[in-house]
Amino acid sequence: MPPHGEPQVLTYSRRATECPPYNLPGKPGRVFGVKPAAGAAAMKRPDVVVIVPAYNEAEGIGETLEAVARIPEVTRTVVVDDGSEDDTASVAERAGAEVLRLARNSGKGAALAAGLVRADGDILVLLDADLGATAVEAGKLLAPMLAGEADLTIAQFPGGRRRSGLGLAQGLSRLGIRWLCGFQARWPLSGQRALRREVVEAVTPLAPGFGVETAMTIDAVRAGFRAIEVGCDFEHRRTGKDWAGVRHRGRQFFDVLRALISRWRRAAPKRIR
């Protein structure tokens, strides 16, 4: 077993899509994939674009965007207004973001897909609209990428945080990701993540609705890209235990299930024995 310490990278002589089903421990997260080509970390400073899908988030999106503006590496922010019925778009514009308006509410997957088409950065950061002041923590997602150590970074929320539900969707996603691509995700449904432009081609078209994160991780790892989870002190609104919260978690569970079924039906890559 490799020692704990700095992130370690696996190297294989075969195609990256044939990597075995495990990943290594390390800090700030765990790396799964292959070693980058020599000199990959010595590239010019990349353009970093933040994409924020938002639906009726006028109350809190302004604080989120102010925090994003404090991340020095970010060159541009795109807010995708997913058919909001409030002032989400105007609040985002006043905060200095570029706003893409969708004609009707189409769901998170569709909003992210529209944002990925509009954004043209080298590194794309996906953030929820309700992170508030903690959105500045997204800078931690960029560090391994700028160091050439990862192609996809996924935020781990603070440990021990209470769940607002039973964790069924989270558990299903975690098991499905491990089964279909071998990656052991602690926070498989984390929507706070960063990915290189090359990864976008491997993970599109995106899965619809709340299955987008699960499918994205599976597709990226199967394509041989290096995924790593990074500890971030994010906080955002959690769904309650009322009927609306139950409905939300139900939709999330079935969206994750549909995403897993669709990826299972695809031909899985061969693995090294």
Mean pLDDT: 81
Task: Report, as a whole number of angstroms, the end-to-end distance.
Answer: 18 Å
Q: Spatial order of the strands in the main sheet?
A: 3-2-1-4-6-5-7
- Give the tally of structural domains: 1
Give me the count of strands: 7
CATH architecture: Alpha-Beta Complex
Features:
273 residues; alpha/beta; 8 helices; globular; disordered N terminus
Plain-language structure description:
With 273 residues, the protein is an alpha/beta fold. The protein has one domain: Spore Coat Polysaccharide Biosynthesis Protein SpsA, Chain A, CATH 3.90.550.10. Helix content is 33%, strand content 14%. It has 8 helices and 7 strands; from the N terminus they run E-H-E-H-E-H-E-H-E-H-E-H-H-E-H. It has helices at 61-68, 88-94, 108-118, 139-146, 168-181, 197-203, 212-222, 243-265, and strands at residues 48-54, 74-81, 98-101, 123-126, 152-156, 193-196, 227-231. It has a 7-stranded mixed sheet, with helices on both faces. The chain is globular, with a radius of gyration of 18 Å. 46% of the residues are buried.
